[in-house]
């Protein structure tokens, strides 16, 4: 059973949280800052939202990844995403 209240989040917010969780350079702290959802809650949301194999692949990918945790990041990583990631008209 999902412990976070999905009713407080719009479909667009849920989609963005999942997208941010998949991004290598977006730390869980940024998701928490933007949406108020902690790392364990993001993991729970991903488990609930993804197919089992997709969740397993994502979990394997982010476990121990230094860019997903601010405390493990090197000084050279200063932002959550590449400046060309979001296209502006």
Any overview of this molecule?
- The chain is mainly alpha-helical and 89 residues long.
- It is 47% helix and 0% strand.
- The chain is built from four helices and no strands.
- The radius of gyration is 13 Å and the shape is globular.
- 12% of the residues are buried.
- Mean pLDDT across all residues, rounded? 78
Q: State the end-to-end CA separation.
A: 41 Å
Low-confidence stretches: none
Spell out the helices and strands N to C.
Answer: HHHH
In short, what is this structure?
With 89 residues, this protein is mainly α. The protein has four helices and no strands. 47% of the residues lie in helices and 0% in strands.
Main features:
mainly alpha
